């Protein structure tokens, strides 16, 4: 007999503000399958964890609810555990602090340390190319200016500031917006009246990829762009699940780019990390 619907979890916004770009996760027993999720949500099941990421501009209004189902052939009852709900921000809260949370910033910097030093260890200092504002502050300022709200976009921008410097990133942004047809649009380029954040990040990463590919030295670091592209395709917008750099540029774009040779590490949202004993290169 095939799988049957065994249970569901309903999330409802009982607050007083709309919730923008939420993500939901919960754990189920082994053998349980996560349902596809409502329209506007993307499912990602990793082992016994059901994770759902919303489209970049999905907003949950006050008193609005969404129901997520899970399936199994077993007749044993169970209760989902470790239920977590997170969001970029309350959509109507204008004064919220911009930037990454402490844990998101730790993960983002650990990822950059792999590119810079082949280890995510906090004992290693990041070397920044920027000669203007400090890379983090500069990246968060640009993210706010262009309407970027997700941790993944901010992390990719932060890493670009560290590698390319302020002038290099501004050139990347100009090329990104030109390629997306919004070069003449005043900031922000991302939002209800402009691009989706998914389209913007895809364009930005492709421009950064091309910049590195054209550089005699930079081409050997091109795989650092692929990790952000993989997380974009997986919908890991708020870096709620572990990030692993088991991907090369050639895996994402089917071009014979050089292999950067970075050691594969697994970075967890809580700041811990490990070196996987085995892995398969993939952009999915």
UniProtKB/TrEMBL annotation:
It holds the Pfam family Glyco_hydro_46. GO terms for molecular function: chitosanase activity. Gene3D superfamilies: Chitosanase, subunit A, domain 1 (1.20.141.10). GO terms for biological process: carbohydrate metabolic process. GO terms for cellular component: extracellular region. SUPFAM superfamilies: Lysozyme-like. InterPro entries: Glyco_hydro_46, Lysozyme-like_dom_sf. It comes from the Bacteria. This is Uncharacterized protein.
